[in-house]
Design a protein that fits this description.
The chain is an all-alpha fold and 187 residues long. The chain contains 8 helices and no strands. The radius of gyration is 17 Å and the shape is globular. It binds heme C (HEC). The site of heme C (HEC) has 23 residues, from helix 4, helix 7 and helix 8.
Amino acid sequence: MAHPFIDQSAAHDFLKAAKISILGYPNLKPSYPNEWRAFMKLQKVVLSAAALLMVSGSAFAQFQNAEKAVDYRESVFTVMGTHFARIGAVVKGDVPYNKDEVAKNAAIVSMMSTLPWQAFGPGTEGGKAKPEIWSDNAKFKAAADKMQLAVADLNKAAQSGDLENIKKTFGAAGQSCKGCHDDFRKK
Ligand code: HEC
């Protein structure tokens, strides 16, 4: 019998995270060929480990109980929200634009955006999560996917250092947060 707190899609999320992190470092290759090679090697090890987990169907992430799952996802959202807001301050003009800072914050948001979902497994109701997450799970998953794509776009813009595009993609990402919060998060 499947353990209720084991989410086997976590390995899939991890693969997605690895892919996003590759997209996030397009400038590594020409400027730092040695680092790039080491990075690609590491990437290969990580990918094959994740693939093995998917094939064997064994658990990647486990939570002892619902409370631990709620803690985990709220922590991830808090870190993600903190770094997202730092980009927001630049977009609003409250903080001067610094390419490296925004690129770092966007990479963190991008990595974090892949993590909360493994902590919404069956039987993990609690926190500010609405019951519709479980009763209308396909819609919730679609909203999660939409946000991850929007954040990946933001990360690409941030790594390339195009402020106009950062503003545009930040707006779209923010909409994707709000859309899910309106439907699936208690006030
Ligand atoms: C697919 C749905 C979904 C998307 C997309 C989403 N969130 Fe959330 N978020 C939630 C839910 C559900 C909670 C409540 C979790 C809980 O309390 O268990 C939450 C909680 C939070 C919290 C509060 C954490 C706490 O400690 O209570 C922050 C901050 C947050 N989200 C930020 C964001 C940001 C920033 C984005 C977009 C970049 C985002 N979220 C996108 C569903 C989503």
